[in-house]
Amino acid sequence: MGKLVLLRHGESVWNAEGLFTGWVDVDLSATGEAEARKGGELLRDAGIRPDTVHTSLLRRAIRTANIALDAADLHWLPVQRTWRLNERHYGALQGKNKAQTREEYGEEQFMVWRRSYDTPPPPIADDDTYSQVGDARYADLPPELMPRTECLADVVDRMLPYWYDAIVPELSAGRTVLVAAHGNSLRALVKHLDKIGDDAISGLNIPTGIPLVYELNDDFTPRKTGGEYLDPEAAKAAIEAVKNQGKK
Ligand code: DG2
């Protein structure tokens, strides 16, 4: 059985500004680029050598994989990209400031939108500046699958087919697989791997740029629940920071 390495992209410019991002295709900040490089160095230093790479269709995950692989001298690895690893579509919240949203709607509603399992934010209008309707990269997506908003349950539903069809066969063949994706698409995958309940998943946060390694049993259950961050101390602090986003 191969190894699974999960990597949330480095800090994006909208992470730095405290904005809900979702499917908006923002770039990495300079800090995010440095985090991605560090992520690659952590892989290299731990002697973890992915055989294949999977990313979302979003620049922040694509560039993170490129930068990390370059740092690990693995820039030549084969890569597959899919909308199924995209960040959760944040609906009408895309482009909105997290702290202002929390202030306007209150902590409870803010956290329902951010972390509840099955309540999506209000849908985004097709003519909103931050809508992805009409974006060429989603041209092959059947129109009825194009999200206008998503809750985490929706992400689990659209991510799992890719997990079973594209990633599981590679792991079964003994390959080490790197998945470069997002806070919430990785929360969906970790929920599945660690069998985290619908309520408990609200407490899970994934830090930017720190590889999380899962050794798997033959039935794809993790040898160690929660996997292992390659820099556990940095992960602890960064997880706390993600948790507290939107608080002043
Ligand atoms: C963040 C996650 O996604 O935000 O969409 O704003 O991982 O692509 O930066 P990412 C966003 P939270 O759900 O943690 O607020």
Automatic annotation (TrEMBL):
Record-marked site positions (Transition state stabilizer): H182
Domain of life: Bacteria
Positions annotated as active site in the UniProt record: H9 (tele-phosphohistidine intermediate), E87 (proton donor/acceptor)
GO molecular function, one term: phosphoglycerate mutase activity
Example GO BP: glycolytic process
Keywords from the named record: Gluconeogenesis, Glycolysis, Isomerase
EC nos: 5.4.2.11
Residues annotated for substrate binding in this entry: 8-15, 21-22, 60, 87-90, 98, 114-115, 183-184
InterPro entries: His_Pase_superF_clade-1 (IPR013078), His_PPase_superfam (IPR029033), PG/BPGM_mutase_AS (IPR001345), Phosphogly_mut1 (IPR005952)
SUPFAM superfamilies: Phosphoglycerate mutase-like (SSF53254)
Keyword Cytoplasm: no
Any single Pfam family the record assigns to this protein: His_Phos_1
Catalytic reaction equation(s): (2R)-2-phosphoglycerate = (2R)-3-phosphoglycerate
Pathway: Carbohydrate degradation; glycolysis; pyruvate from D-glyceraldehyde 3-phosphate: step 3/5
PANTHER family from the UniProt entry: PHOSPHOGLYCERATE MUTASE
Recorded family membership: Belongs to the phosphoglycerate mutase family. BPG-dependent PGAM subfamily.
HAMAP family linked to this entry: PGAM_GpmA
Function: Catalyzes the interconversion of 2-phosphoglycerate and 3-phosphoglycerate.
This protein's name: 2,3-bisphosphoglycerate-dependent phosphoglycerate mutase
Organism: Nocardiopsis composta
